[in-house]
Amino acid sequence: MIKSEQQSHDYEVRNAFSGSRLVHKAELREYYYQHSQQATEQAFRRFLYRLGKQQTIVPVGAGGYVFHEPSSQQAARKMRFSPNWSQELVSLNKTIQEAFPYIQYLCWETRALHEFMVHQPGQNLFIVEAEKDVGESVFYHLSQQNPGRVFLDPDRLTMERYVLQQSDNILVSRLITQSPRKTIHGLPYPKLEKILVDIFVDEEKYYFFQGEELVRILENAFSSYWISEITLFRYAGRRKASTKLRQFISTHTQIELSLTQENAE
Question: Is the whole-model pTM more than 0.90?
């Protein structure tokens, strides 16, 4: 398909689904097979790839896509969430891998949220989430390596009195099953959707991210990065907070969600 034909085809498919908030992959495939002379699965995959590369469509999980208007400069600026983790987190990850090579865990650091905030915290906390049966073992091992710096499921009082009194402390907690995750260079970390849900739900641990700061974090995260609403609300559902989060976004932020509650579940 030559370039002019591609542009015409892309324009037509955008018009065909202009009234849709969510389009499923099966619908795009059916449309492509009906309107293309190169109706093969390989050609369809190239078609999807091109639309995604041009940021015409954005995957929102579970085979769903949302179309963006070509005039949307905000959409064109959005990026994929892929932080440059500190060397300290990389070293912490290596320690966990060497001691517990077969467990499921995630690790990240709270400075990943600082870009979304107006009032910059003076502390950077390292978060380690390990599967239920080994959480305490991970805690004791890291405590031996980092005496006085590791806390297991701290409540708000512990956070105020001890954790936030110095930077670079380590918080260990239980990993929620089926947590959205990615692994880059051997470091398993939570997707941004999971981080946003966790700071919303875990108000005691992340109390310093609440109030107006939480509103800023959500709004800036949505405006700067591609957020899968399906991933966001499905994980929020696992934490029994899907409806509460949707209501908070609708009543406290300027975020315009693409999916209805029914489509996101």
Answer: no
